[in-house]
Write a structure and sequence with these properties.
Immunoglobulin-like; 3-stranded antiparallel sheet
């Protein structure tokens, strides 16, 4: 997810010296920030750098934790200058913002005498988000079938999508009714998978 520049957090240091410039403090990011974070030297606020992308799946290597070393320096001159360091850990929480993708099953061969209830395949999809909630569907309107001559078969003549049952939770494809090869030789099932945990608009992928 690409973030706009925003206040993330602020570090604060104090100096017991009572007079300026010895009690003036400036801050500096020493390491760990890369191009992801910037720091205001006067206030100690650390913000996401403009244009930075913190999505762990879009960082190379995949990064979910940033360890920032922060240096606080007082206004002393020469040997009188004092400093201290602190480590700041930034844990990135994944946002569900990526659509799932089907793993192409290719062509599945099924004998027409397969018993009703038999599992013939498990449809698979991948989702790069941390906690996707995937649901599988058959899209009857976009599915099609053809007979041995290659002629398209109408659903009204032979309900070929009803021949199969697709488990919405596990993607398991089963035979729901007896197959008839004399009526249909090739069935092209249109599939949909949706991530119900999507943080924004519906995240739907299609496959065949």
């Amino acid at each position: 997810m690409e973030l706009k520049k925003c206040l993330c957090f602020q570090v604060s240091a104090y100096d017991l010296d009572g007079s300026s410039p010895n009690n003036a403090i400036v801050y500096r990011l020493v390491s760990g920030a890369g191009d992801k974070f910037v720091m205001d030297a006067e206030s100690g606020s650390i913000t996401v750098a403009p244009g930075a992308n913190l999505d762990p799946d879009k960082t190379d290597p995949k990064t979910e934790l940033y360890a920032l070393k922060v240096l606080a320096i007082d206004g002393g001159l020469g040997k009188e200058q004092r400093s201290t360091e602190v480590m700041v850990e930034v844990q990135i929480e994944d946002v569900n913002n990526k659509a799932p993708q089907f793993v192409d099953p290719g062509t599945i061969g099924v004998k027409e005498n397969v018993p009703v209830g038999e599992v013939i395949y498990r449809i698979k999809a991948i989702d790069l988000d941390a906690k996707p909630v995937l649901r599988f569907y058959i899209d009857a309107e976009k599915s099609e079938a053809r007979n041995e001559e290659g002629v398209r078969v109408k659903q009204s003549d032979y309900n070929y999508t009803a021949v199969f049952d697709l488990g919405p939770l596990d993607g398991v494809l089963r035979v729901a009714k007896n197959l008839d090869r004399e009526k249909v030789d090739l069935i092209r099932l249109a599939l949909k998978v949706e991530d119900l945990a999507a943080s924004r608009d519906p995240q739907i992928a299609t496959g065949t």
